[in-house]
Amino acid sequence: MSYIHIENAGKTFVENGQEFRALTDVNLDIEKGEFICLLGPSGCGKSTLLNAIAGFDLVNEGSITIDGKEVTGPSTKNVTIFQNYGLLPWRTVEKNVALGLENKKISKDERAKIVRTYLEMVKLENFAKSYPRQLSGGMKQRVAIARALAVEPDILFMDEPLGALDAITRMKLQDDILDICKREKKTIIFVTHDIEEAVYLADRIVVMTPNPGKVKGVIKVPLHHFRDRTSGDFLLVRDKIFDLLNMKNEDAIEYNI
């Protein structure tokens, strides 16, 4: 069985006595160390699926397992990074990064060493004593990434983490994320509605469509990192996703390019 196994997963919400079917018949396998992008328009269930895998809001049909164990709630082995950074404004950068380490049985000196390591990794070692209000959006997201990596998670869930950033900062952080992933060898599930971002980052792209949310197709990206956004091969993958989104047939298909 694959590292993450999703079988016939469905999710229905009830609001004001009305049922809303957010996900239906989702089947997906993710291997350890893969970088997976969940891609699709607003309302297609990307974040719902991510939250279900992370254990925040469980499916009420089918099953999701990680490393052979059914997901029944959030795990301390996994970390989620959101678009709004989630930093504590009254704590300095270094103390924000140390947050997840404070409940671990490690010495203060060891915590400080780990914090330094990850601040250096995200190139913020000179801002250790700064507060979040003194940082740009891109710097805040780097702090959030450092904090997530400091606890050595098995899986990083990233819910449109770059969505609030300007285009130049966004592209720079995409490179930073890929560089960190190469070194840390983490399994990453990354939600985005940006097609080019997905092609630039992912090993495989899970294309989702709404009403209700389902997997329309899975595209393997046969390009080495780091990718040239203007190359013919890059544009081929991008266009394949456009074609898939516009196809009438909504059966899940595994595409090889």
Topology overview:
Elements: E1 4-15, E2 18-30, E3 35-39, H1 46-54, E4 61-66, E5 69-70, E6 78-82, H2 93-97, H3 108-121, H4 137-150, E7 155-159, H5 167-184, E8 187-192, H6 195-201, E9 204-209, E10 214-220, H7 232-246, E11 254-255
Parallel strand pairs: 3-8, 3-9, 6-7, 7-8, 10-11
Antiparallel strand pairs: 1-2, 1-4, 4-5, 9-10
Helix pairs in contact: 3-4, 4-5, 6-7
What does this structure look like?
This protein has seven helices and eleven strands. It has 257 residues and is of the alpha/beta class.
Portion of residues in beta strands equals: 25-35%
Order of helices and strands: EEEHEEEHHHEHEHEEHE
Estimate the global geometry from the Cα principal axes: globular
Which ranges are low-confidence, i.e. pLDDT below 50, for 5 or more consecutive residues?
none
N-to-C span: 25 Å
Number of strand elements: 11
Give the class from helix and strand content and strand pairing.
alpha/beta
Count the DSSP helices. 7
- Please estimate the helix content: 25-40%
Round the mean pLDDT to the nearest integer and report it.
90
- Kindly report the spatial arrangement of strands forming the biggest sheet: 6-7-8-3-9-10-11
Biggest sheet architecture: 7 strands, mixed
What tags apply to this protein structure?
alpha/beta; seven-stranded mixed sheet; 7 helices; globular
